[in-house]
Amino acid sequence: MPRQVALELELSRTQGIAPCNPLTAEATMAKMKKLEDLFHDTLKDVYFAEKKILASLPKMAKAAQHAGLKAAFEKHLGETEGQIDRLEQVFAEIDKKPQGKTCDAIVGIAKEGEEIMDKYEDMPAHDAGLLAAAQAVEHYEMTRYGTLRTWAEELGYTKSIKLLQQTLDEERATDAALTKLAKAVINLDAEKDEAA
Ligand code: FE
Ligand code: FE
Ligand code: FE
Questions:
Q1: CATH numbers and ranges of domains, the chain
Q2: Which of 16, 58, 63, 163 has a 20 to 30 Å separation from 156 between CA atoms?
Q3: What is the mean pLDDT of each run of 10 residues along the chain (196 residues)?
């Protein structure tokens, strides 16, 4: 039950405050319905994005030259499988079957990453560019999961709140790990540059 409606019912039960007039209750329900639709659409968007990321990460791990960066991508590949599983549990809570809808943002971010990998192949900046592309992905995911978690709270999807928060924490941790690696990756590139 939407939180706002639950609150009105609680007030009427405990304090004898009559629920807002039926018209307002109706308007509230309509508003919640719109938010439910938006939640479902955004869920499809991030489901598509995660599947795209699942397909990209092995290529990124293979392309990375820095051992730490390679390991970070491999670790996140495993996490991404779990994140897709969580999204399927969120679909289950809202009684919908898991389904993706093209996310133009992730398609664009992936395309940028591929361009960098092609352009800087065998060049010192290669891993730095790859890492930057990966961070763009994590940031996109962080906005999506933050939004979905907030809407799940509003809509009272209690299981989904936890699931979405878990994934949000993983995306944040991945981003932080990449930030830590960024300097080491650039330094390794510089070393190789000197040796060349
Ligand atoms: Fe993810
Ligand atoms: Fe999107
Ligand atoms: Fe991620």
A1: 41-195 (1.20.1260.10)
A2: 16
A3: 68 68 76 92 98 95 93 98 98 98 97 89 85 97 98 97 98 97 76 54
Is residue 52 within 8 Å of 110, Cβ to Cβ?
yes
Ligand 3 center to 137 CA (angstroms): 7
- Six token digits for residue 8: 């009105």
- Cβ(61)–Cβ(1) below 8 Å: no
Q: What are phi and psi of 22, to 5 degrees?
A: -50, -35
Please tell me the number of the ligand nearest to residue 174's CA.
3
CA 195 to ligand 1 centroid distance, Å: 37
How far apart, in whole angstroms, are the C-alpha atoms of residue 67 and residue 108? 27
pLDDT value at position 21?
63
Q: What angle is formed at CA 2 by the lines to CA 166 and CA 13, rounded to 5 degrees?
A: 125
